[in-house]
Amino acid sequence: MSTIAAKTSETPARKVAKRPGGVVKRAAGTAKRSPGLSKRTAAAAKRPVSLASRLAVALEADIVSGKLRPGTRLDEQALARRFKASRTPVREALRQLESRGMVENRPRQGAQVMQLSLASLIEMFETMAWLEAACASLAARRHTQADRDAIQAAHEACASAQQSLDPEAFYRANTRWHEALYAASQNRYLEQETLLLRNRLEPYRRATTFHEGLMALSVQEHQRIADAIFAMDESRAMSEMRGHLDTLRNDAVRTYGALLRVD
Fold first, then answer.
1. DSSP letters spanning 60-89
2. Is 66 left (phi over 0), alpha (psi -120 to 50) or beta?
3. Alpha carbon distances (Å) from 136 to 139, 142, 210, 229, 241
4. What's the rounded Cα separation, in Å, for the pair 53 and 113?
5. Three-class SS state of 247
6. Distance between CA 263 and CA 122 in Å, rounded?
7. 39-96: per-residue pLDDT in tens?
8. 252 and 205 in contact (C-beta within 8 Å)?
């Protein structure tokens, strides 16, 4: 698997990629943080996580993994028995998930896993394409040697899973690859927002990884995106990533549209 090598130089804080021609672009985020901010952040990290928040995390993981499919009813009493908790933290957890767009409350039906319309799915994939394209563009400008290593390692894991026709392993490696690319943008707000939308789309994206032909195509597209990032070609990285998301969107829309027709 070919990648375009770029020399790196080191600063006391971190390694940064060097632009062609020898001009070094310093990565964002190397400035010293104020002691007050560090103390506040550390104090926040020590605060105990509420039971409702822990339940919300567990339920979100079930939704993202596909264990709880779109449209599944979420009965408070059943969830309280499952988690050995009262209905109050369960109700609060469902409210948290509703605020993130993972759960919806329907009149006389109660809470259920959000089920998107086909039009909403298309619009969200279009938005995701721009977010991931922005991540790829910034990654081309700002990535570090550690970012290169993480992207390449995840890419090799994807290729290995595809060759062995292991969709579960491919799904895990594919998630690592995309998240490594988000991190390489060095923009934590963009990374967070991209992850939030990715989690909302994950039940629909997940199904596409079980197509043998799409796994092979994704590996090829990942390679072209990585080559553009490692060459520090922002425009090409953005274009390749948008094309990659178009592939995922088209397959997810076809798959979901077929399911809606069956239902």
1. HHHHHHTSS-TT-B--HHHHHHHHT--HHH
2. left
3. 5, 10, 25, 7, 7
4. 17
5. helix
6. 19
7. 433 444 445 568 999 999 899 888 877 788 888 999 999 999 999 999 999 999 999 9
8. yes
Which tokens sit at 263?
Answer: 């239902």
Per-residue tokens: 32: 């010293």
Three-state SS for 11? coil
Backbone angles phi, psi at 65, to 5 degrees: -75, -15
Are 221 and 247 contacting, i.e. CB atoms less than 8 angstroms apart?
yes
pLDDT at position 210, please?
65
Enter the DSSP assignment of 17: E
Enumerate residues 6+ apart whose C-beta is below 8 A from 24: 9, 16, 18
Q: How many residues are given for the chain?
A: 263
β-pair partners for 215: none
The secondary structure of the chain in percent helix, strand, coil, rounded to multiples of 5, reads 70, 5, 25
Structure tokens at 70: 């779109």
The pLDDT assigned to 224 comes to 98
Contact 245, 129 (CB under 8 A): yes
Q: Tens digits of per-residue pLDDT, 104-152? A: 998 888 999 988 888 888 899 899 999 999 999 999 999 999 999 999 9
35, amino acid identity: P
Task: Identify the burial level of 56 via C-beta atoms within 10 angstroms of its C-beta, where 0-12 means exposed, 13-18 middle and 19 or more buried.
Answer: buried
Q: Residue 215 and residue 153: Cα distance in Å, rounded?
A: 17
User: Is the confidence at residue 23, as pLDDT, over 90?
Assistant: no
Spatial distance between the Cα atoms of 188 and 216, rounded to a whole number of angstroms: 30
- The reported pTM is 0.67
Minimal CA–CA distance to 181: which of 131, 122, 220?
131
